[in-house]
Amino acid sequence: MGNNLAYFTVYLFTLGGLIVFYAFFHSRLMGTIVSKLLSTFYAGPINFIQVNSIQISLLSGKILFRGLTYATKNTTVRVVEGVITIRWWRKGVRKSTVQSATRLHIALNGVEYLIYNNSYKYDHLESVLRKRASSR
Predict the structure, then answer these.
(1) Does the pTM of the predicted model rise above 0.70?
(2) Residue 50 has pLDDT above 80, yes or no
(3) Predicted confidence (pLDDT) per residue in 21-42, tens digit
(4) Taking the CB of residue 68, how many other CB atoms lie within 10 A of it?
(5) In 3D, which of 85, 24, 27, 84 has the Cα closest to residue 54?
(6) How many CA atoms within 13 Å lie on the side-chain side of 90?
(7) Contact 108, 82 (CB under 8 A)
(8) pLDDT tens digits, residue range 92-125?
(9) What is the 3-state secondary structure (H, E, C) of 11-50?
(10) First to last CA, the chain
(11) I want to staple 38 with a disulfide (CB 3.0 to 4.6 A). Which of 49, 56, 64, 80 is the partner?
(12) Do the Cβ atoms of 86 and 61 come closer than 8 Å?
């Protein structure tokens, strides 16, 4: 009887820990994994992509994300939160002026586009001046 109680207690705490992890930390872990994959295969060595958290719901066709950042040497694009809805269950397109009839809906909140300086022009100017200095 005592052995069964010990197994039940371990099972209960393990299940509770998994529920807490899934409820609070799963989307952040997925955001970290997606950030690493996108930065490695898409952004390159100079640029980076960061996603704080991402949640994918296949049945409703939604991708929810928070803290999407794409930064280059010159600019940064940041989205505080966004939802991409793919209405995969729609067969045809309705002709209605009241509601959108598309299969793809993108909602972005808090979009920022920051331009720091025109460093590419300064890099070009520096290379021209170095060529002139070396030719003298």
Answers:
(1) no
(2) yes
(3) 888 888 899 999 999 998 888 8
(4) 24
(5) 27
(6) 13
(7) yes
(8) 655 655 555 678 889 999 999 998 877 778 888 8
(9) HHHHHHHHHHHHHHCHHHHHHHHHHHHHHHHHHCCCCEEE
(10) 93
(11) 49
(12) yes
**Residue 16: band (very low, low, confident or very high) from pLDDT cuts 50, 70, 90:** very high
- 77 neighbors 38 (Cβ within 8 angstroms): no
Cβ–Cβ < 8 Å for 86, 106: no
Cβ contact 71:48 at 8 Å? yes
Residue 95: the pLDDT is 61
> How much is the mean pLDDT over the chain?
85
Is the separation of the CB atoms in 67 and 80 below 8 Å? yes
Question: Among residues 60, 51, 2, which one has the least CA distance to residue 29?
Answer: 51
Give residue for tokens 């295969």: 41
CA-CA distance, 26 to 20, in Å (whole number)?
A: 9
